[in-house]
Every structure is written in C-alpha cells, then in structure tokens.
Here is the input.
Amino acid sequence: MKKIRNIFFVRVTGFMLYLLMGLAFYSFSQQDPVFTQYMNNMLTIQPAYAGISGSLNITGISRAQWVGFDGAPNTNTLTINGPLPRFNVGLGLTIVNDKWGPIRQNGLYVDYAYHAKLGQDQFLSFGVKGGFNVSQAYLTDVVVNDPNDPVFSYDVKINFLPNLGVGILWHSDRFFLGASSPKIIKNRMENENGENVYREVLHFYGMGGYVFFLSDVVKFKPTVLYRWAERTPSTIDFSGNFLLYDRVWAGATYRMENSYALIFQFLVNDQLKFGYSYDQTTFHPTQANSGTHEFLISYDFVRGRRGRQIVPRYF
Here is the structure.
C-alpha cells in the first residue's frame, strides 16, 4: 500500500509540474493584480496554499498603486482559508475587487488543496482553484485625441468570465517552494457592439522562501516570486524580511526593472497582524505619482492543542 501511494504521488507531482510549465507558454500579457506582501496572501495566486498554516485565517489587503496618477490601479482582496485536518485538506475563498483606468473587475474564487505528508513536518500540497470574474470597461468615458476612434466608441458590457487554476507547493513551517497557474481558461470580452476587445491570459508563477534563525530574537526570511506572461517582460520579486522578537517584521522588496518597496508588519499577538508597504517605481512614472501604498490586516483563529498550528506564522 505504501509503495502504491508513493507511486501515485510521484505521478501526480509530475503531471502537475508538466501542466504548469505547459500553461506558461500560452500567455499574452500581464493582467493579474500584483501585491508586495504576497508572501502573506499567496492564496490569490497559489491554490495549494489553502490551509497550510493549520488554522482558519482571514486576510485583507488594500493596494492603492501610483497614488496621484490618473486612472491608477486600485485593488482590494479578502481571503479566507483553513484546514480540514481529518482529511488532510485545506479550503479557501478569495474575493477580489480591482479597477484600473476605465476597467472594473470583481472576482470570486474557491480553493481546494490536498496536503500529503512527506516526512517530519514537511508536506507536498496540490491545489485547484475555481471561480469567476465579472468585468466591464467604460471606454466611452476615456478622453482621447481622436473622438472617432472606433476602439472607444463602445463600452465593454458586463462579461461573466469563469476560470480554473492549479498549483503545487512543497513546504514546512520554515520554507516553501512551489509553482502555479491561477487562471487556465482564456476568456474573451466583448463590447456592446459584439466585438472582441480583450482576452484573459494565462500566468505562471514560481515562488520560494526560507526562514533562517539568526539568534534567539532575530529571524531572516528571504523570498522570491517569478511571474511570467507571453509578450510581457518576466518579473522577479526579491524580498528580505527580518522578524524581531516574533513580533515585528521589517524588510524590503526589489521588483526587477520595475520598483522597490519597504515592508513593515506588526504582530499584536499570535492571532492579529497589521502590515504596510510602500512602493516606488524605478521608471519614468515616478515623476507623476507619490508611490504605492499597501495595507494588510490578518487574523488567525488559533486552534487548541490538537491539530497542526504554526505560531508565529512565517508565511
């Protein structure tokens, strides 16, 4: 039985990685929201993240990008996830409200993850995501040089866009390494004249992180996030955060050829955490905006002694 189970996990792992890598080569452009504090909100891009902390968690993030820049992106997310230890399963829910320029988008997704124990405190998690976006664009409100431009002659009506995603994550209390593609279906959006004006694309993410115990009071957590979409430059986020006295996170992020950020998080107790990050671009628009502000609030409903509860949470 043990041999059969091991063969099953090897084959499933291989299939998931093959699928994820294959999906990466059919993207068109970058569309998904980007978060600086992604390591505390991975459910938005990684369904295998659901339930890995061992407790029910609620996290909200509000991101105001390029403040002062007309039509700048503004994104709000709420994620809820928790484990079902008896079945080695995690469940999650993601709600997204996103707008940039004339485009408005709301999404609702549910996540399912199966956690296979590999050894002492190590797990391999397989996740699937399913849900939908409701999108529309007020193109006729855009001020353009040519008022007769047919692209802006019609608004994009409300489009219902169902989608699916997959992910895989190898993790313990102190590290994680994974890959995901949160949207597989390439939906098309139509304007009020019935013309295709927009197409959803596939995104591929690779992610990893590790927590180093430097002393009794200081821990260091470097993380990396790779993001790829066809016909759009790949981006890599390099982050380094220090945890002091298991209460205060302080660090920075560099997004290659894009921006840099400072991150600060405070753990009020083992359950409640507040976070803030400030981003500034490294390209020309930095002269026309006052940066990006991202606020986080997270709460864990700590379980009793039974089950697997990680305190403090490192990601």
